[in-house]
Amino acid sequence: MTPETLAAVRAARAANRAVVLLTWLKDGRQQLVTAGDAPAELAPAVARALSSDRAEVVGDGVFVEPFNPPLRLIIVGAVHVSAPLAAMARLAGFAVVIVEPRRAWATAERFPGETLVQTWPDEALRELAPDARTAVVTLTHDPKLDDPALLEALASPAFYIGCLGSPKTHASRLERLAEAGVARDALARLHGPIGLPIHARSPAEIAVSIMAEIVSDLRKGP
């Protein structure tokens, strides 16, 4: 990799922009591309590499190497599910932030080693600026906290937005957000009730179902 190419990769990472380095193994020629400007014959391989986070050799000896922005998980609510979910997310390669303005809940004793943001969720989401490699989950069951976070998340390119609660709770949530002006196609982005249907009961089991759904959305491909 030339110094110029390395600088371009670093600049893309700083801007949270996904890029792919193409290397023709026969002559060492390299080209840095995005999903939108890849050569037509290599576009499927580029999309596949970005989706899977895996490099591969394709076609007539072209090495396709993805450089994706970091994965992030923003958890709104320092509740019982949050601790096991944060631990599982880190194991899966996500940087985790827990947003909780209720200071009695968001303590280092309850969440040792976690990044805690103790501001209102809408303010936190604006500051954290979810991108296409960010998942957002709301877990508080409190519309005063969850709804402002969801409004900010739905205005972002976050790849996953999930909401804890029963089907009845989620239906009420959709009504409130619609009344707030959220379009129907935007509301369709919400996963609620959150998680894959594995009949989870304990906080750890619920965290498994949530993390599985997040990974499913992340890896579903173009």
Mean of all residue-level pLDDT scores:
92
Q: What is the overall number of helices? A: 8
Overall morphology: elongated
Instruction: Indicate the proportion of strand residues.
Output: 15-25%
In the CATH scheme, the class of the largest domain would be Alpha Beta
Structure description:
The protein is an alpha/beta fold and 222 residues long. The protein has 2 domains: 3-67, no CATH class; 71-218, NAD(P)-binding Rossmann-like Domain (Rossmann fold, 3-Layer(aba) Sandwich). Helix content is 38%, strand content 20%. The protein is built from 8 helices and 10 strands. It has helices spanning 3-14, 43-52, 82-91, 121-128, 143-154, 167-179, 184-187, 203-218, and strands at residues 19-24, 30-33, 56-58, 62-67, 71-76, 94-99, 115-117, 134-138, 160-163, 190-191. The strands form 2 sheets. A 6-stranded parallel beta sheet has the order 7-6-5-8-9-10, sandwiched between helices. A 4-stranded antiparallel beta sheet has the order 2-1-4-3, with helices on both faces. A hairpin with a 5-residue loop joins strand 1 (19-24) and strand 2. The model has no long low-confidence stretch (mean pLDDT 92).
